[in-house]
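Notes to self after the Tuesday call (sharing in case useful).
The group wants a holo model before anyone commits to mutagenesis around the pocket. I volunteered. Ligand is S-adenosylmethionine. Logging inputs and output together so the record is complete.
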Amino acid sequence: MPHDISWDEYNAHQHGRAPRQLLLEALALRRPDVDEALADVPGGAHDVVPAPPVGAPVAVDLGCGEGIEVEVLLAAGWHVHAVDGEPAALARLVARVDPAVRDRLHVQHRAFGEVGDLPAADLVHSSYALPYCPPEDFDALWRRVRGALRPGGMLVVQLFGVRDGAAGTSGMTFHTLAQVQGLLAGLDLLHWREEDEPGTSFTGPKHWHVFHVVARRPAVG
Ligand SMILES: C[S@@+](CC[C@H](N)C(=O)[O-])C[C@H]1O[C@@H](n2cnc3c(N)ncnc32)[C@H](O)[C@@H]1O
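Result:
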C-alpha cells in the first residue's frame, strides 16, 4: 500500500462500513436470471422459493480484505472462496462468521502473484484490490479470473486507470481504457462507470481514475 499504512491497518478500519455498492448492484442484476430459470418450473417464478436450481452458487473474492462483501455473499447463501495477501484480516473474517455458514467459506492466504487455479465460479468479485497486483503478475492473474467464470458467471471489479493519483507506484497495475476493453473482450457489459475525478482515500485527498465494471460471461459460448 502507498504511504506508511499497512494493509492490516487499512482492513481493520473497514469493519463496520457498508458493503460495496457495485456488488449489491451486481447481485440485484442477477435476479432476472434466477426468475428466467424458474419460469420453466411448474408454478412459475413468483410462487417458488428462490433456491438455486443446481447447487449453491460459488463466488470468488480476490483481495477480500476484511471480508465485508464476503459476509454479504455468505448471508445470501453463496459458497465463497476468499483470497488475500494479508493474513490478519482473513483470520478476523473466519473468527467473525456465523458457525452455521462457516462450511461455505474457504479462505486462502496468497499473494496475487501466487494465486493458482480458482474454483469455477458464478461470481468473481474484486473491489479495489487487483490494481495492487504487480504488473508482471497481472496477466496470469487475469487469466485465472477469466478461466474461473462459469457460463453466465459475473465479474464485479474495479481497475485503476492511468490518470489515478497512485499511477506509477511500484508494484501496482494501471490500465488505459483500451486495455480494460481488451480485458473484458467476450463478456457482456452490464454496468460500466469510468470515475476520473478528485476525491478522498483512506490516506487523504486523491485523484481517482477507476473503471467500475460488472460484466457477464455469455451463458452460451
Ligand atoms: C484496498 S484493499 C481492498 C479490500 C476489500 N476488497 C475492500 O473493498 O475493502 C486491497 C486488498 O488487497 C490486498 N492485497 C494488496 N496487495 C496484494 C497482493 N499483492 N496479493 C494479495 N492481496 C493483496 C490487501 O491485503 C487488501 O486487503
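Two things stood out.
The two ends are 38 Å apart (CA to CA).
The CA atoms of residues 126 and 157 lie 5 Å apart.
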